[in-house]
Amino acid sequence: MKIFAAEQIYAADKTTIKKQNITSDVLMERAATRLFEWLHLRLQGNPVKIHLFCGIGNNGGDGLVLARQLKEEGYNIAVYVVRYSEKRSDDFSTNLERLKKREVTPDVLEEGDALPTISKDDIIVDAIFGLGLNRPPDDWVVALFEHLHRSRAFTLSVDIPSGLFTDRVPSDKKAVVKANHTLTFQVPKLVFFLPKTGIFTENWEVLDIGLDQEFLSTAETDYELIGKNEVLAFYEPRKKYSHKGTYGHSLIIGGSYGKIGAVHLAAKACLHTGSGLVTAYVPQCGYTPLQTNLPEAMVITDAAEKHISKIDFDIEPTVIGLGIGMGKDTKTVNALGQFLDVNKTPLVIDADALNILSENEEFLDKLPPRSVLTPHPKELERLIGKWDGDFQKLEMAKSFSQKYDCVLVIKGSNTLTIYDGKGYVNTTGNPGMATGGTGDVLTGMVTGLIAQGYPPLQAAIFGVYMHGEAGDTMVEDTGYQTLTASKLIEGIGEAFLDLFAVDDDVLADEE
Ligand SMILES: NC(=O)C1=CN([C@@H]2O[C@H](COP(=O)(O)OP(=O)(O)OC[C@H]3O[C@@H](n4cnc5c(N)ncnc54)[C@H](OP(=O)(O)O)[C@@H]3O)[C@@H](O)[C@H]2O)[C@H](O)CC1
Ligand SMILES: [K+]
Q1: Residues 179-199: pLDDT tens digits?
Q2: Does the beta carbon of 163 lie inside 6 Å of ligand 1?
Q3: H or E element: which one contains 205?
């Protein structure tokens, strides 16, 4: 699903209004009707008090229309206009009049006014600011946000939590409404997925307001949300007359004394993702544990006992997963530099190899085109430098990826894959995966996909999705705390099966 920038959403509005020959007022009515339906389906006439806080623009207008529809259905509402500006949008004014005709006159809240009492069992609808926010809210509006938060009432934000910009991180956390749920129009917003801005809404949901389909499908966006539909398009079925050679030979290079487990995890994940053959290249201390515990993998050993001292092998791998558990011994650093001088095989680079690249920038020029780099935030910072906010981070990551022609997989709760100026936001995964070894599993999976012929970008996006899906499958049995990297590998098969599983709801409809 595409993630549109705010200007594109405004443009989609305009096109829709023109092509459907409607007024903006009709579009607002449609948007607010979706909000009403959502609430009404859940509340079923429950007399709970609903406090609707409306700004003076179209976000506020949505709130006023919702208030009118709730009133008509007999709900217990209180409506407030948060008068943070003298201006009013036309559709706001039209809907204020319509509401007044139904004998609902909102309380106007201005600087210095007493704030309404809200009980924790009430519901708050936040329609104060939407996509039009262009500067930080005034202090008294921030005080109102804090008041809403202190009430601990369920807070439903319209389109976006008020105070959240679409293109920058707010400098003051208090200046944003903390939403329990956000009902966003037509398309998800990028800020729902970034670490410093995603925290303002616990959940979000898209409401289809019928914006012009042609506009939505043809517009180019900088970001895309990756779910099952998107990765299914990449999936390559296994062929009947195939053999292990058809699915490539992955070489996993890494490990050092005390960190052979990382290679074990990556190699095993690589096998479970479908690589035809997997070989591990490790220091000698890794030979026995790997041969004993992972019989499907072959093992080549370095001359040194405890760390990699020279990368030298006589096989022709399709792809190499490099760096897990490798350490940064001087000999290992030299070995990596010499290896990169001659290597032409596609690479997936993680962990210590990334840190070595950060400390030896000249190595970056030696990477084969479209190498996949999988840093966690600290490793990313070492690679691209310090950033100021999530948006600068993304721009810096895009420049880095362009400069070195590499696919950058920024690991996090919504892992973001960057390539060729675009970002792909993953939707699978859970906090149970924040545990040692899960990164090694990802490296193995992406390597295994490239081995089978998936182009690096698709392998990265698909691998990240499947990695999260495996976690989501397994966590149902284990719970967050007990979800280990080994468990994740067990879930890879389920993740593949899930790609083709028919929804229970669909089956029920057919019966
Ligand atoms: N296609 C859709 O998704 C539809 C969305 N709708 C809703 O429309 C809003 C966007 O509405 P808009 O009127 O553009 O913007 P806001 O309501 O967010 O803001 C109103 C004005 O407030 C001013 N502003 C901005 N920041 C501040 C501030 N910190 N303090 C005071 N005032 C501020 C600004 O005007 P200025 O001229 O003063 O700069 C804003 O214009 C969208 O989010 C949806 O909820 C439609 O209803 C249907 C289609
Ligand atoms: K809002």
Answers
A1: 999 999 999 999 999 999 999
A2: no
A3: strand 201-207
Our measurement of the distance from residue 243's CA atom to the centroid of its chain's CA atoms, rounded to an integer in Å, reads 36
Question: Any binding-site annotation on 426?
Answer: no
CB 45 within 8 A of CB 75: yes
Q: Which of 167, 133, 118, 140 is nearest to 59 (CA)?
A: 133
> Band of the pLDDT at 509, cuts 50, 70, 90?
low
pTM for this predicted structure:
0.93
Q: What structural domains does the chain harbor? A: 2-221 (3.40.50.10260), 314-499 (3.40.1190.20)
Give the integer Cα–Cα distance in Å for 240 and 414.
36
Strand, helix or coil for residue 148: helix
- Helix H segments across 273-365? 287-293, 330-342, 351-359
Those residues whose C-beta lies under 8 Å from the C-beta of residue 377, and which sit 6 or more positions away, are: 195, 410, 411, 412
Q: Check whether 441 has a pLDDT greater than 60.
A: yes
For ligand 1, atom 2, name the residue with the nearest CA. Answer: 185
Which atom of ligand 1 is found nearest the CA of 158?
A: 45
Query: For 156-183, how does the pLDDT look when each residue is reduced to its tens digit (9 = 90+)?
Result: 999 999 999 999 999 999 999 999 999 9
